[in-house]
Amino acid sequence: MRIRYENLFLWSPWADMDTSTQILRAQGSPGSPVVLRWQGRRLEGDRLEYNLQTREGVLRNPRGQVDALLLRGGTLEVVPLEKAVERRWVTARQAKNASGDEDLVQWDQVTITTCKEAHPHYRLVAKRVVVFPGRKVVVRSPQVYLGEYNLFTYPFDYVVLLGEKRKEVLANFLPSMAGDGSRGFGVGLEGPIAWDTGTLRVGAMYWSRTGGEGSLRLDQKIGKGLAIYATSAYTYDDVDEDKTWRTSWGLRYRAGGWKMVVGWSQREEVSVEKRAGLTYRGLLWRDPEVSLTGPWWADPATGGWWRLLGSWGTYDEERLRTTRTGVGLEVYGSGPDRQGFRVFWKGLHWRYRYDRPTFDDEGREEDEQRITEGVVGFDWPLGPLSMRTAYVRRWVDGASPMAWDGGVEREDLYQKVRVSLGEGWSVSARGAFDLQESELREMVYQVGLDQDCLRWELTYRDDLQGENDDWAGLRILVTAYPNSPLWVGQKDLADPADPPEDLPGSESEGGEP
User: Fold this and answer.
1) How many alpha carbons lie under 13 Å from residue 198 in its C-beta half-sphere?
2) ∠ at Cα 55 (83, 162), nearest 5°?
3) What letters, b where the CB count within 10 A reaches 16 and e where it falls short, cover 191-225?
4) H or E segment at 293?
């Protein structure tokens, strides 16, 4: 039997309609469940009762999919927004920005995963899930299972955003594990406290040598394209070899592809790779810094992209206070993939002016610094091996009175080798060779395991310069949401061959706020 009513489509072996109460009832049979098409989604269940007049209904033993999430079991209820507030499914603040005729879904005693196997590699079991159609899914404090093992109960809500351009989770429900040359071995967890227009992210990490660290980050939308943020973190730094509080705050604005950030920071730990194997670490105060990033424009002549950049800021570094103004240009492009062979290139040019002069390496007084960096490389196959070669060259003219943004000329060659071992396993190694010094500066080793819905990455970075900058980390990623943020305590592995994160068509296009 087939029934259609407004945006509701129903297929069922048996159905009955009470015209006096406007209540629709449907019953499935073995092998023939009740099937619903509602708000563009397909749901199955054993038994349905739905009031067409009040838009309230119950589906027993439901199965369905919301974005990449597969949900099963328990009871599904759907009610209008005002009823959801009355029943305290959501708060009045959460409902404030929603459409008045929006329906909300609450799913009780439900199992959630993104794995399609009969026996998923991971799953979440929650007493309650609330679905805001087209906006987000909120899983209330789920139990986390890997295979059949119950690891722990996640103390936060697991929130999946369902925006048109960018779909992501606000935090990863799995813990992070890392090793650091200074901190030792660490284990941590991060999670959000979310509401309709913002989040408070809470993170904690414990290290075997330096003890506990923690962080808080507030993100709050205050208007169309406008948001404020504030962070407070108690962390260890290699500069002072001590732990202290570090704070930052500011606002972000986005309109017409342009992005502007106005931000302040205190005791910010900055880490800047000057060249292969040489990383500057220091403490910085931004008071404030304004950055402007333009939209990507296509270049038909090369098939690449380009955009304009700008910045202005006042900085304190080692008791030196300096004001800097900068304009820049960024380009990126790549060729087609021809049987595993692909060429790519990117470039970045900045011109900075400072309010106090300094002296360059030749003793000349300078109040400007011009930095141009280019990367050219290619992916290429070599039998069973996947190769990636990248040549990096930087030219510096002028000088900066500060150390953190002082340009260093570089000429480096990066070579990565990756081999697939079958059944989802892969290993890779990447070396960074300093062509100016004719010296191998670092090696990065990685073991990966792809399991349909999860990716495990074990990474070890070997510092060959004796600066005690060795580190290791284990990440477990839900592949359906690759934009999950890094956990507190983890280090990001920069690769000069990677394309810009917000390039048109990339996973992270859209972004904040």
Assistant:
1) 14
2) 75
3) bbebbbbbbbbbbbbbbeebeebbbebebbbeeee
4) strand 278-293
Contact 57, 77 (CB under 8 A): yes
Given CA atoms 358, 361, 366, 367 in this order, what sign does their dihedral have? negative
CA 118 – CA 129 distance, rounded (Å)? 21
Single pTM value for the model: 0.82
490 SS3 class: coil
Give pLDDT, residue 485: 53
pLDDT by 10-residue block (mean), the chain, 513 residues: 80 88 90 83 89 89 87 89 80 63 82 89 90 81 90 85 65 78 87 81 92 94 95 92 95 96 96 87 96 94 92 94 97 91 96 90 85 96 95 95 94 97 95 95 94 88 80 84 59 80 68 57
Q: Three-state SS for 84?
A: helix
Which residue carries 């069973």 as its tokens? 384
CB contact burial 93-104 (16+ within 10 A = b; e otherwise):
ebbeebeeebbb
Q: What distance in Å separates the CA atoms of residue 446 and residue 418, rounded to the nearest whole number?
A: 9
Q: What are the φ and ψ backbone dihedral angles of 224, each rounded to 5 degrees?
A: -65, 115
Q: Give phi and psi for 405, each to the nearest 5.
A: -105, 5
Q: Could you give all domains of the chain from N- to C-terminal order, each with its CATH number?
A: 2-162 (2.60.450), 167-359+372-478 (2.40.160)
Contact 176, 474 (CB under 8 A): yes
* Omega before residue 288 within 30° of 0, cis: yes
Do the Cβ atoms of 13 and 32 come closer than 8 Å? yes
**Range 408-440 burial, b when 16+ CB lie within 10 A, else e:** eebbbbbebebeeeeeeebebebbbbbeeeeee
Question: How far apart are alpha carbons 498 and 504 in whole angstroms?
Answer: 14
* pLDDT value at residue 301: 81
